[in-house]
Amino acid sequence: MAINTDTVLVSHEEIEQMLDRLSAELNRDYSGQPLVVVGILTGAFIFTADLVRRLEMPVIVDFMQVSSYVGEFSTGELKIKKDLSYDIEDKNVLIVEDIIDTGRTLALLKQQLLSRNPRSLKICTAFDKPSRRVNDLVPDYNGITVPDEFIVGYGLDLDGMYRDFDDIRIVRKE
Ligand code: IMP
Ligand code: MG
């Protein structure tokens, strides 16, 4: 089976415009207040790097690596592979994610971070696939809404590959 990534869904220019729009919204909403940016590894490493360089308030950049498991009798459990290096109590915190799919991971992560008593907690995602959602999670900041396709590039991977593409492509298995 061959993997075809020829179909561009979002161009690099559209990604740049999305970054300009999101950073303008964030700069307006936080207006100079310090922000702890929590990038979710690995997928959000490029988006986080691009976004923070457009932010005008003082930022602390931190990363977490998490995954979620759906057990037979539970709605899901959060596995933390890498935790934050900073205390977020009483801080304005922005979770930066590559894509929201079912919403399971972020719903659990949100609960986990809220238990640490931040002053505020918001979610910013580069891409959103709302058709796949299993809960009521809505990002506070959304870059581009995408259809129910498996996409790669701009940090998003298929088995660790294609993260380096500077645009977003649809994966077709043929
Ligand atoms: P969920 O929202 O808990 O279902 O998980 C979202 C995570 O699944 C994202 O952070 C990505 O790592 C991964 N993911 C979901 N959809 C895609 C896709 O189309 N391409 C690459 N990764 C995806
Ligand atoms: Mg991810």
Bound molecules: inosinic acid, magnesium ion
Q: Give the helix proportion (percent range).
A: 10-25%
Structural class: alpha/beta
What's the overall average pLDDT, rounded?
96
**Can you tell me the CATH class?**
Alpha Beta
Number of helices: 3
Distance between the termini: 6 Å
Q: What name is given to the CATH topology?
A: Rossmann fold
SSE string, helix = H, strand = E?
A: EHEHEEEHEEEE
Radius of gyration: 16 Å
Largest sheet: 6 strands, mixed
Give the amount of beta strand, in percent. 35-45%
| Low-confidence blocks of residues | none
What number of domains?
Answer: 1
Main sheet: strand order: 4-3-2-5-6-7
What's the count of strands?
9
Shape: globular
What is the architecture at the second tier of CATH?
3-Layer(aba) Sandwich
